[in-house]
Each structure stands twice: as structure tokens, then as C-alpha cells.
Amino acid sequence: MQQRMEALKRRLSRQGIQVGIVTSPDNVFYFTGFMSDPHERVLAAVFFEDSDPFLICPLMEAPDAVRSGFPHSVIGYGDAEDPWKKLKEEVEKRAGTVKRIGIEKSHLNVERFEILRSAFPSSGFVPLEETINELRLIKDERELERLRKAGEWADRAIEIAIRHLKEGVTELEVAAAIEYELKRNGIEQMSFPTTVLFGANAASPHGNPGTNKLKKGDLVLFDLGVVYEGYCSDITRTVAFGEVTEEQRTVYETVRKAQEAAVALCKPGITCAELDREARNVIEKAGFGPYFTHRLGHGLGIGIHEYPSVSETNGMPLQKGMVFTVEPGIYIPGKIGVRIEDDVCVTEDGCEVLTRFPKTLQIIG
Amino acid sequence: MQQRMEALKRRLSRQGIQVGIVTSPDNVFYFTGFMSDPHERVLAAVFFEDSDPFLICPLMEAPDAVRSGFPHSVIGYGDAEDPWKKLKEEVEKRAGTVKRIGIEKSHLNVERFEILRSAFPSSGFVPLEETINELRLIKDERELERLRKAGEWADRAIEIAIRHLKEGVTELEVAAAIEYELKRNGIEQMSFPTTVLFGANAASPHGNPGTNKLKKGDLVLFDLGVVYEGYCSDITRTVAFGEVTEEQRTVYETVRKAQEAAVALCKPGITCAELDREARNVIEKAGFGPYFTHRLGHGLGIGIHEYPSVSETNGMPLQKGMVFTVEPGIYIPGKIGVRIEDDVCVTEDGCEVLTRFPKTLQIIG
User: How far is B178 from chain A (nearest CA, A)?
Assistant: First the structure.
């Protein structure tokens, strides 16, 4: 944390930003080690180009913040107090009148921005995102260690998932069983609600599990991930329950080829757009282009969707230490849905795949 | 939905707002019936004082949006398209040049606000929150029916929770077992991650379950809720595992008296501040004032934290149809944590308590 705070301080100073107000829970965690969801309450870590930072949080969470190891002032406020007034006082104590304040423009809402503007009427406000995203984009070894573990647990979750497939079971029952077994094994949190979809339900790329019952001939799509010490994994596998039709197999193999082609291309210098294009070409050539309706992937770390966005329009070149998903899919409405997703980390000359459950079509039952 | 959309239209017209852009998933659901978490993608329901509304969402979710029953245009955009450009075109098609645009200032972030400002350079932007919160504050019969069901499931969850208490079990195991049993019974989603805390762990009002093991003499705090057809419940019960000390009992009975006093006071005309004060007085008189570190409660509905805020500083009088939590607590750091929470709905002359698990101290094992 100390290193990350120092890096931020240097960048603030270089950009002539006297104060950086960090308000998204993920970024607060990244810099301070304190993870908290304050709901509608205010949580902010405030950094200075030449003073020590402070953390402001709901009074009842202050002891947890201190315990989390943040080595500077933790300032709690009660529900009847005005956190912005306290923040202003603490900022002025440390930095006097400030010319430029950095904020998270993609997190801070307009209401809070207007409060800040009237609290600091002579300050200009500039976005901090790029600075912070640049820091977060490249994972350090400690982060990679956690991402690897999160990936291993994702693989285990798919094994568990497959063990629970039997005729007549519902999507929700399988989803519940997966989360139950993981929690019994000490996993405190999933990256997002576990998705289990049977048959035509899988044709909706953001479908939710329901009381749909498994039957022979269904393809089954699992999309899930765990949070391991604050870091997320995200895996998708599609397996067959019983015999597959030729069409199901063709769709599956097309997705697999697209996914493997993109993974094989990963290395420093290749752009996100090129990766997306690589997978999209395979799917288009097979005639399923219109059914691949989303980008190839997204960055992964403390957040389940972070930089880089692996899309057709992102010309950002890959760099060593970037971690993201590679997840092409084909969705034929009312009929078939297949997606295969791995988490990868860019290395010196290629990539390390963090999720390793087999991708050859698994036929269950 | 139709009624709610009409009510919003009338209010927009009355306030001279030509266009209302609704972006928070909860409010989009409230008006359109379409529930979706678009993550960092753009989701907006756009309303007009004198045209039909439209919904704009990621392309891959458009079929789900149509299926959800929204009777007007659903406009999908691909990952490589600019949703703001589409939104601007659709707005201009329906309303020409607009003078005033309503936005959710407590939801919309600064980055998106700046995009909107440059897309509509001659428009003024006003907050829509009050208008929408006024509508959502008073629950209609259909909403109450769902909130009652959500409350019943919360009671059942506490019964399940208690069945899983045995010496040596961990907080996480109990939390996992609760969610598993509920999901097997068709509950798709919890209102928030289930909290189970043993002994001194419960002294942190926002603590997370961990691998702490249950032992005789512990107080056990459960805080959980389910989402039932889009509506949340939120219950807290504290039970004793084995014998209790005199101090534990005193703390428990103080919280119970405070909670019951506040519930008994609920009726139209009493203010939120008076309710909070009523419970706080009981706790202060017993000498535990400094250990009740949060407000008495919060509104409940589609959101787990919505209006009204039941705090010392909110002079809003209760009205029939308001639904909120009543949840005083006493937290003696490192030692004892007790909280008791019910969901209540204000009626003509009192309140209906939606959560009914007994509040007399339950001694388990």
C-alpha cells in the first residue's frame, strides 16, 4: 500500500494536483487496504502532493479501517454529522487553499460534485481516473498471486458445478450448490451472482438462473467467479448434458476456436482491438457474426470489470502485467448459447492463463 | 408500470421538464419493469412530458428488456457504438431542442454528466430525485404484497440460521447454509451478503462473516434479507448460544425495549427524527448511548437503502405506505454486539410489522 500511495503522490505532484479525493470503494481498497461498501454514505481516501493522506468513513466503520492497516489518520463521522464539512476542514488543515483537486469523475455523482464545488469554490476539478487506472492496469506480483488463487477456485467451482448436474435439477439449485460448497471451503464472496443457464436460456448473454429444469440434450452454461483476498476471477464454461446435435457442436467448436485463437495471440504489443478482431474473424467466417453481440473481454482485478476493455475500438497495446478476460460467445435467440471464458495475464512474451478447466467439449451424463 | 410512467410524465410537465433521463437500475425497474445491472455500460429510461418514453440498453440485453413488458421502444447499442449519440438522436426526434432535462444527480456520475452537457449544450439540468423519491416513498398494494413476502422469507431464513448453530461451526458455514436453503426454495437473490457474526465479532456493526468458530456463551447476530420479485427485506436477530451473562442479557433487553418502543410509536404524523429519538432515549437512559453509533433505520423497497432515512436529523413525518427498518443496536468494542431489526409499513393509524420472528431472547443449545 505504501508504495502505491507514494506512486499516487508523485503523479499528483507531477500533474500539479494538490489534493486527490478517491471515493470508489475499489480504489480506496487499492490504496489503503480498507475494503468497505458504504452504500449511500460517504467514504473517501484523500491524498496530497506533500502531506500525509487521510481516510474518512462512517463512524461505525472507523475501527475496521484502522485494523485494516492504513497507517494514517482515520476520521469517522456520525450519521448526524456532515462528512463534507469534516473533509473540507481536514483538507484545509493539510493543504490550505487548493488550486486543483483530482476526483473520480466516473464514480463521483453530480450531487456530490456540486457539494464539493461549493466547499472549494476557488478550486478546479480534474479527473483522477487515468492516473489511477494506469497504476491499477499493471498488476504487481502480490496481486497476481491473488488472481492466480482466484482462478484456481474458479476452476474448482466448475468441477463442483458439473457434479451437480442431473436430470430435473434447476438452474438455481445448481447455482446455490456451487456457492454453498465454495463458502464452506472459506470463500467469502463471489465476484458476481453465479450464473447457471440451461438450453435456450443460455442464449441470453446476461440471463439469470431460474427454475428451469435440466433435460437431456441441453447445453449448460456456467459463468462465475470468486473474490480471493479482494481480487476477482471470472470463468465461463459451456458443457453438454447428454448427446449433442451437430449444430450445437458446430457452435461450440466455433467459440472454442475463436477463444483459443485470441488467447494464442496475447502478448505485449498486440492491441485490445486486434485480439477482439482475431476472435471475431473466426466467428464471422463460420457465419455466426451477428450472434456474437458483445466485446471480447474486460480487465479484471479488484473490480470485475476494469481496464483494459478488450473491444473492437480499443487501440491500447497489451503490456506485461495486464489481466483480462477472453470470452467470445455465440447466442442464437431461443435456441443455443455458448460462451467460453478464461482469465489471462500478459507475460514477457505471451500470456499466462489463470483459469484452466478443460475447453474440449465435456459431455456429462 | 403504466400508472407510474403516467405519474412521472405529469410531474415532468408540471415542473417544465421536457425530458427525464432515468439511469439508476432501481428506478429503471420501477418505471419500466426491466431489471438489469449494466455494470459500466449505459442503461437509461427516457421520459417526456408529451411523447412516449424509450429505453436504451446494451444490445445483448435488448431482448430481455422487450420481454420484461415495457410497451415502448427498446433501443440496443453494440459495444462499439456510442450510446449517448443514439440517446441524443432519439431525444431530438421526440422533443426537438429541449430547455430543461431532469437527471438523477445522486446516480449519474460527473463523467457522464459532462457528456450529456456537451450533447445538449443549450439545455439546463435539474435533479429528478425528489420527484422519483416522492413516487417511490409511498408503496402501492402490489409493492406491499411483495414486501410482505420478502419479510416472510426473512423470518424463514432466521429459522434456518438457528437450525445451523452448533459448537465449532464457522460464521461463513452458517451464512452459506442459509443462502443455500433459500436458493433451493426458489429465492434468486439475497438483498445483500448474509451476515452471521459470533461473540465479539458482532461488536462491529458492519462486520463480515469469517472462519470464527461458534462457542458456548456467544451471542450470535444474523443480518440478512431476500429479494422477492424485485423487493427487499432486511432483518436482524441476535440470539444466545448457551448461557448468557448478566451483561449480555442487559444489553439485549435494552436493545429490545428500544426497538419495541420505536415500533410502537410508528404512525402517520410522527417524524423520522422522533422515532430515532424514542429508541435512542431508551439506550441512553440505560447508559449505552455512546455504543449506538448509527441511525435507527432506512427506507426499504426495490433498494435496500432508500427513503426515508430514519435518523435524528430527518424531520420528515411518516405517511401511510412508507416502508422502513427499525434497527437499534449496542456495540461494545471487542465484547458484545446486539442489534434487532424489523421492517415496518406505516398504516392508517399505526404500522404493520413485516418481519415477525420472535424478539424475546432465544437461547439455543
Answer: 9
**pLDDT at position A31, please?**
96
Contacts of B203 (CB under 8 A, 6+ apart): B331, B332, B333, B334, B335, B336, B337
Length of chain B in residues, anyone?
365
User: For A110, which of B60, B61, B105 is closest by C-beta distance?
Assistant: B105
* Helix A25-32 and helix A129-137, axial crossing angle in degrees, nearest 10: 60
Cα angle: B225, vertex B227, B230; to 5 degrees: 150
pLDDT in tens, A68-100: 999 999 999 987 899 999 999 999 999 998 999
Start-to-end Cα distance in chain A: 48
Contact B191, B308 (CB under 8 A): no
Residues A80, B313: C-beta atoms closer than 8 Å: yes
Provide φ and ψ at B9, rounded to 5°. Answer: -55, -45
Q: Which helix (H) or strand (E) holds B28?
A: helix B25-32
Asked if B282 and B261 touch (Cβ cutoff 8 Å), the reply is yes
Q: What are the 10-residue block averages of pLDDT along chain B, 365 residues in total?
A: 92 96 96 89 95 95 92 92 96 94 96 96 96 94 97 98 96 92 89 95 84 95 97 98 96 98 98 98 98 96 94 96 98 96 98 98 94
Q: Which of B236, B238, B241 is nearest to B252 (CA)?
A: B238
- Determine the distance in angstroms separating the CA of B92 from the nearest CA of chain A, rounded to an integer: 24
Report CB contact under 8 Å: B311, A80. Answer: yes
**Residue of chain A nearest B292, judged by CA positions:** A60
Of A294, A323, A324, A286, whose CA–CA distance to A311 is shortest?
A: A294
How confident is the model over A286-297, as pLDDT tens digits? 999 999 999 999
Give the three-state DSSP class for B329: strand
Find, in chain B, the residue whose alpha carbon is nearest to that of A203: B60
Domains of chain B (ranges, CATH numbers): 2-137 (3.40.350.10), 141-364 (3.90.230.10)
DSSP one-letter code for B306:
E
Question: Are B364 and B284 in contact, with CB atoms under 8 Å apart?
Answer: no
For residue B193, the tally of other CB atoms under 10 A from its CB is 15
> How far off is chain A from B34, nearest CA to CA, in Å?
13
Sequence-ordered strand ranges (E) for B186-284: 189-190, 195-198, 218-224, 226-228, 231-232, 235-241
From CA B202, how far away is CA B220, in angstroms rounded? 7
- Is pLDDT above 80 for A205? no
Report ipTM (2 d.p.).
0.79
| Mutation site for B-interface testing, chosen from A188, A272, A292, A298 by largest number of B Cβ within 10 Å | A188
Residues of A in contact with B186 (CB under 8 A): 172, 211
Distance CA A22, CA A53 (A): 11
- How many helices (H) does chain A have, and how many strands (E)? 10, 20
Burial of B301 (0-12, 13-18, 19+ CB in 10 A): buried
Sign of the CA dihedral with B147 first, then B152, B153, and B155 last: positive
Q: Is A172's CB within 8 Å of B183's CB?
A: yes
B330 contacts on A by Cβ (under 8 Å): none
